[in-house]
Amino acid sequence: MKITISEVSKYVGQEVKIGVWLANKRSSGKIQFLQLRDGTGFIQGVIVKSEVSEEAWNIAKELTQESSFYVNGIVREDHRSPSGYELTVTDLSIIQITEDYPITPKEHGTEFLMDHRHLWLRSSRQHAILRIRNEIIRATYEFFNEHGFIKIDPPILTGSSAEGTTDLFHTKYFDRDAYLSQSGQLYMEAAAMAFGKVFSFGPTFRAEKSKTRRHLIEFWMIEPEMAFTDHEESLKIQEQYVSFIVQSVLKNCRMELKTLDRDISKLEKVQAPFPRISYDKAIELLKEKGFDDIEWGEDFGAPHETAIAESFDKPVFITNYPASIKAFYMKPDPDREEVVLCADLIAPEGYGEIIGGSQRIDDLELLKKRYEEHNLTDPAYEWYLELRKYGSVPHSGFGLGLERTVAWISGTEHVRETIPFPRLLNRIYP
To answer: Residues in domain Aminoacyl-transfer RNA synthetases class-II family profile (predicted)?
Structure first.
C-alpha cells in the first residue's frame, strides 16, 4: 500500500510503500539506518542485512544524500523516535542516485545556504519553519471565516502609495506610472464598505534599503478591515486572532516546534487579553531603562520595541502614537488631537512589531485636510475620498506581517528563513 510518512500511524504492523529521499544515513556493520523524508515528514528506516535480499542490501549501500527511491517496509512504533514510528525496510527501488549534493551535514555559511535556497528548503529545520508558516496561514483562514469575514483580493499594481511614502517600486503601466503595492489597506476599506468585514492575504513590497533581521523587500500581509468598528473593538479582534494562530501552532505543529527547540512555555502564555501601554507611558518606560535620548514625537526602533517587550510575557499593544509619525488616514483621538487611535502590537522575545492598526478617519473634511497636510494631490487618491462622501461609517483595520509572526512563533532569528524564497536588499536569486 502506497502512503506518505505523515500517515504511518494508521499502518502500524503493516507493510507499506513510500516514495522518499535520503536525508542522511549511517551504518553499523550489518544494519543500515536511513533517515528518510517525503515532504510530509521524516522517518528512520532500518535495514538489516540478514532480513533482506542481497540486492536490496547493496542498493541501500549505494544510496547517497538526496537520492530518490521507493522504500517498502513494516511500520513499527518506536518511542525513541521523534515521530514515534520507525520503518523496518524490506525492499528498495531506486529512482535516481544523486551525486555531489552541495548541502552536506557539515556547517555551511549563510550566503552559501541562501545561494542554494532551492535545496536548503529540504532540511529538517527549514521544513519545520515553513510548515509552521503553513499552519499560521491555515489558521488565519479558519479564524476570519468563522468570524464572518470575506476574503477580498486587492490589486498588486497600484497608481499610488498606500501611506504616502517614497519607498516604492516604480514601473510603467503602458503610458502611465504604477507601483508595486505596499499594502492593500485602502482597497480593503472600499471592500469593507461593500461587505462589512473583509480581509486580504497577499504579497506586498517595500523599496526600503534595510538590512535588519526583521526586514524583507517582498513579504506577505494579512489585512482585515471592518465597517462599524471602533479602535477598541479592533484591538479585541487582533488579540483574539493572534492568540488563535499561536494556539493552533501549539496544537498542530508540536513536532516542528520540537525540531526547532522552541520553548513552548512562552507560547502557551499567549492568550487574550494582551497588555496595553500608551505611547506616553512607553516613552517613560524607555527613559527608565536608560534610553535617555528618546523624546516624545520620535518613532521607536528595534532596540526600543525590544526593551518595551521585555517588561511583558505576552505581546503588548503600544497605543496612541503622535499623529506626526503615523499615516494620514488614522483618526485623531477625540480627546487629544495630537495623537491618533492606533496601536502597534509588539511580539515578545525581541521580535518587534507584528501588527500595525488604527481606526480610520471617516470624516470627509478632515480627510481632505490630511490630504493637504501630506501633499496628496494625486488624482489617484480621489476614489479613496469618495468612500467618505457616500455612506461613510466608523471603521478600523490592521495589518499583520506574516514573516515576522512566523519568526516569532517558530523562534527563528532572521525573517529570511520564514519565506520560501526571500527577497533581500542584495538578493533576488534563486
So the answer is: 130-430
Three-state secondary-structure class, residue 145: helix
Question: CA-CA distance, 105 to 46, in Å (whole number)?
Answer: 20
pLDDT tens over the chain, length 430 residues? 999 999 999 999 999 999 999 999 999 889 999 999 999 999 999 999 999 999 999 999 999 999 999 999 999 999 998 889 999 999 999 999 999 999 998 899 999 999 999 999 999 999 999 999 999 999 999 999 999 999 999 999 998 766 656 688 999 999 998 999 999 999 999 999 999 999 999 999 999 888 899 999 999 999 999 999 999 999 999 999 999 999 999 999 999 999 999 999 999 999 999 999 999 999 999 999 999 999 999 999 999 999 999 999 999 999 999 999 999 999 999 999 999 999 999 999 999 999 999 999 999 999 999 988 888 777 778 899 999 999 999 999 999 999 999 999 999 999 999 999 999 999 999 9
SS3 211: coil
Sequence-ordered list of residues with C-beta below 8 angstroms from that of 340, at least 6 positions apart, any chain: 320, 321, 322, 323, 326, 330, 331, 332, 333, 358
Contact 202, 187 (CB under 8 A): no
Percent of the chain as helix, strand, coil, to the nearest 5: 35, 30, 35
pTM of the model: 0.96
For 214, residues 6+ apart whose C-beta sits below 8 A from its C-beta are 302, 351, 352, 404, 407, 415
How far is residue 308's CA from residue 280's CA, in Å, rounded to a whole number? 12
| 155 and 77, same domain (yes or no) | no
CATH of the domain at 13: 2.40.50.140
Distance (Å, whole) CA 157 – CA 66: 40
Same domain flag for 365 and 333: yes
Nine-digit cell at 352? 518587534
CB atoms within 10 A of CB 268: 11
Per-residue CA distances from 187 to 191, 192, 339, 384, 390 (Å): 6, 9, 25, 8, 15
- Amino acid identity of 430? P
Are residues 255 and 367 both part of a single domain?
yes
End-to-end CA distance of the chain: 37
CA dihedral 329, 332, 333, 337 (to 10 degrees): 160
